[in-house]
Design a protein that fits this description.
With 80 residues, the chain is of the alpha+beta class. It contains 3 helices and 3 strands, in the order E-H-H-E-E-H.
Length: 80
């Protein structure tokens, strides 16, 4: 994996973005110390869906829509 110093990355940003877009991964360093890893952006495939990714991990109470309803009404009406 190639490493570029930050000054070089600033002056050659357009070329480095093209390399990353083409699939190349590289490191940007400052004073020889690696700071960031640049990787190509891979958009989510249209066939992938996140619907239901927490299925069976969260329990919703049966009275969810009415939870605390009396307490909320009492707060609005000033009843304690």
């Amino acid at each position: 994996m190639h490493q570029y110093n930050i000054h070089c990355a600033k002056t050659q940003l357009s070329a480095l973005v093209d390399k990353a877009a083409a699939g190349e991964t590289f490191i940007i360093a400052k004073a020889g110390k690696p700071l960031v890893k640049v990787i190509p952006y891979l958009p989510q495939k249209s066939g992938q869906q996140r619907i239901g990714f927490l299925k069976d991990q969260i329990k919703v109470p049966a009275d969810f829509n009415n939870m605390g309803q009396e307490e909320i009404i009492n707060m609005f009406e000033g009843i304690k």
